[in-house]
């Protein structure tokens, strides 16, 4: 494949945008080389500035579950745009999408729309703190909840249970209120709660982790979290930015039959426009301004174009529930195919999958938390990534990311992909 124009555009971008990108993972730092500039996309395919066609397994990091330029979404946005793009005043469509979301997701009464997953998680934590009157939060190592200060925390040294900033600019004062736990380790969570009695407002978790590859919760782990939260007056926040409206109509809450206290959304809920949301019971949500004391706001929140895109997307998913079966079947077919060719080529690997989220780790041990995910062979991953790209298949440019499957993929596309894995595996 030729990437002449992409490389030239990247060189231009680097002059005026830090690192040439507006979000770091796009820069290919994890795999080397220069990023590909997209010209347009349709269905399961990306077309880059050099006119290469790539089968897309990232799908804008999740939102494009029904493929790129999905007609009902595009039509809805175009129609709305002609009537004005932002008012900063209430519109009927905000209530319509709220009603639909509340009807699709178990256990929520009210929802507030924001502009990103980061905003959703940041606001959910503030709400949990305001509601419980407590300051500390527990998050899990390797889970990502956006780039707000409270989440940019790594494990502290030695025996300390509180974290330290993992980015300059995050203060020690903020870091001391974020406690780091190991994913899938309920004893670790209990010990942290014990050491911080009556100080923890909430536990925030990706119910299926998708930011260290795809990591399923172990049997009983989420249930145990629910119980310890109940026993200790701690709110359980499910960050369903990736899993919401993807793993099932009602997301991970429905899939695992667990009730979270606050649920965060992003990605699919905006149909590819900048949307996030957080939702909970009447009691918790009415703690938000203007009814309650916890402040949260946004000039472009509930933006009409974003709401039109989201409403078109959710309507499609709501009316055609078989999409979830279809996409799961496609992902299972991909999973089986990749497993076979990697085994045939004796490539050491582990594949994790939940529904239409899947990741390939180049290590044979079980991958169930951040430490086990970090053991994967990154050199093999880099070769795999570039080999797949050369074959016309775009996977995430980082070993720590999940592949997001779109229902726009055909079985022929998946066979093409499996064939590409077979070719690339011979060179690993
Ligand atoms: N939460 C999860 C689970 C995510 O995967 C992401 C982004 O990838 C976020 C929150 C932050 O969302 P955004 O990038 O829209 O701010």
TrEMBL record:
* Chief location category: cytoplasm
Pfam name, any one: Aminotran_3
Catalytic activity line of the entry: (S)-4-amino-5-oxopentanoate = 5-aminolevulinate
Involved pathway(s): Porphyrin-containing compound metabolism; protoporphyrin-IX biosynthesis; 5-aminolevulinate from L-glutamyl-tRNA(Glu): step 2/2
Keywords carried by this UniProt record: Cytoplasm, Isomerase, Porphyrin biosynthesis, Pyridoxal phosphate
GO terms of biological process kind = protoporphyrinogen IX biosynthetic process
Q: What is its EC number?
A: 5.4.3.8
Enzyme class, one word? isomerase
Please list the GO terms describing molecular function: glutamate-1-semialdehyde 2,1-aminomutase activity; pyridoxal phosphate binding; transaminase activity
This protein's cofactor list reads: pyridoxal 5'-phosphate
Q: Which domain of life is it from?
A: Bacteria
Q: Does the keyword Transit peptide apply?
A: no
Question: What is annotated about its quaternary structure and interactions?
Answer: Homodimer.
* HAMAP family on file: HemL_aminotrans_3
* Name of this chain's protein: Glutamate-1-semialdehyde 2,1-aminomutase
Species of origin reads Neotamlana sargassicola
């Amino acid at each position: 494949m030729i990437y002449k124009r992409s490389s030239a555009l990247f060189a231009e971008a680097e002059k005026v945008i830090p690192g040439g990108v507006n979000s770091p993972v796009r820069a290919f730092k994890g795999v080397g080389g220069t990023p590909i500039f997209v010209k347009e996309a349709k269905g399961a395919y990306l077309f880059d500035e050099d006119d290469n066609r790539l089968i897309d397994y990232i799908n804008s990091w999740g939102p494009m579950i029904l493929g790129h330029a999905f007609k009902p979404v595009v039509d809805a946005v175009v129609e709305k745009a002609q009537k004005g793009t932002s008012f900063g005043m209430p519109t009927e469509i905000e209530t319509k999408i709220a009603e639909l979301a509340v009807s699709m997701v178990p256990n929520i009464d009210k929802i507030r729309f924001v502009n990103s997953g980061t905003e959703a998680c940041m606001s959910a934590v503030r709400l949990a703190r305001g509601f419980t009157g407590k300051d500390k939060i527990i998050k899990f190592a390797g889970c990502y909840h956006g780039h707000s200060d409270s989440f940019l925390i790594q494990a502290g040294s030695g025996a300390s249970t509180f974290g330290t900033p993992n980015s300059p600019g995050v203060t020690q004062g903020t870091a001391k209120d974020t406690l780091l736990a190991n994913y899938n380790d309920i004893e670790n969570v209990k010990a942290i709660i014990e050491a911080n009695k009556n100080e923890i407002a909430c536990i925030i978790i990706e119910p299926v982790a998708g930011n260290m590859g795809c990591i399923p919760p172990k049997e009983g782990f989420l249930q145990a979290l629910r119980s310890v939260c109940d026993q200790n007056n701690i709110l359980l926040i499910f960050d369903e930015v990736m899993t919401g409206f993807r793993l099932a109509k009602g997301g991970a809450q429905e899939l695992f039959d667990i009730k979270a206290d606050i649920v965060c959304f992003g990605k699919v809920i905006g149909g590819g426009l900048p949307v996030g949301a957080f939702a909970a019971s009447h009691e918790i949500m009415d703690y938000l301004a203007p009814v309650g004391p916890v402040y949260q706001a946004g000039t472009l929140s509930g933006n009409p174009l974003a709401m039109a895109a989201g409403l078109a997307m959710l309507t499609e998913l709501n009316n055609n529930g078989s999409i979830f079966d279809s996409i799961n079947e496609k992902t299972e077919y991909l999973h089986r195919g990749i497993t076979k060719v990697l085994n045939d080529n004796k490539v050491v690997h582990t594949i994790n999958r939940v529904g239409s989220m899947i990741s390939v780790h180049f290590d044979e041990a079980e991958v169930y938390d951040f430490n086990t995910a970090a053991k994967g062979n990154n050199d093999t991953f880099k070769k795999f990534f570039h080999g797949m790209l050369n074959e016309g298949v775009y996977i995430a440019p980082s070993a720590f990311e999940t592949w997001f499957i779109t229902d726009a993929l055909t079985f022929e596309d998946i066979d093409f992909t499996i064939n590409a894995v077979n070719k690339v595996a011979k060179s690993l």
